[in-house]
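Feature request, filed as a ticket because there's no other form

It would be nice if the structure record came with a short human-readable summary line next to the tokens. Right now we just get the raw output. Example of a typical job, pasted below so the devs can see what we mean:
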Amino acid sequence: HRATDKPRSPFCVEATQSGKRVRQRPVGELGRQAGADKGATMKPESGATERYSDMRCFPLMVAAAYGVVSITITLFNKAIFSVYNFKYPMILFVAQMTFSLIFVNGMKFAYPDKYGFPNFEWKMAKKLLPMAMGWWVYGISGVIALQYLNVPMFSAFRRFTTLIVMVGEYKLRGRLPPRNQQMAVVVMSLGAALAGLTDVQFSLPGYFWVLTCAVSTAVYLLFIDKLGRESGLNDFGLLFYNNLLALPFMLGSLIFSGELNRIADFPLLNDTFFQCFFVVSAVQAFLLNFLIFMCTRVNSPLITSITGTVKDLFTNVLGMTLFGDFPFNTINIMSIVVCFGGSVWYSRLKYVASMEGKAAPPP
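Raw output as currently delivered:
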């Protein structure tokens, strides 16, 4: 008789033989059972063999990890630029990309079965170049914007990313959220625009760079979703190409900026605490980029953008209190509250919609 039930997991396969349901066990388990038949006493195998990616809460865990790392790297970068007055963003970004390349290749050679990916191919590089360009623009615009803007204003303007992602997903994949979600996106975008108009520390260069960061972030997320599916590479393979292809552009930006000629004059270059902040920021950049890839592929570009919205609520509170560069202007604060109120509303609508989708019976 042929099997009539689909396998429920690779560790427990049920089939039908002679009208009876029997359990077909993996070879290793059969060997253990044979040992038990000979008198051996062995402990039963626990459920620890379940892969993390098979857990129902795995997408939530990935999104939470991305949010935590995104909060800490924003604060560390802001501390480097504001507290230590380090005015060399290109050097920081080259260090972040270099560490990412070293770590990705180290993991590939140390654990090829788990983190391996194919060697460099020009055909694949040409395919993934747009994604790397988005990463390059996203990275440099973000670190430059933080030199001009306080953390709450930086976070408020980044809310335009969700609007751009929503439009991009409609253009690329024909997906458009419900009307109430569209309204929530409009509210957060209007709040961000009003926050800029009421900012007493008006900074045109800061607004230019943060809007560039918002656009490039949206493009980057959309390319991760599209090219990640088309390339067939795992997250480490995508990270490898992403950093390798963006590095020449970043080195060109570094040379053009003239930072290499001025870095020797930085007075805290040998300060131990500054060096610790610098290294932690470089390490977190790899973790952040890896988690962006994983969250986008496990969930969606929109969920990744929503996670960024939620983490910005915590970032804003910390940014207002830690660095002392936020002027408490009532109208400006209310604008930021409107912006993030729309963000929370939008995140709740997406969460409710996802729960309803899971609860709906299959057709």
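Something like this underneath would help us a lot:
The CA atoms of residues 32 and 42 lie 8 Å apart.
The chain has a mean pLDDT of 75.
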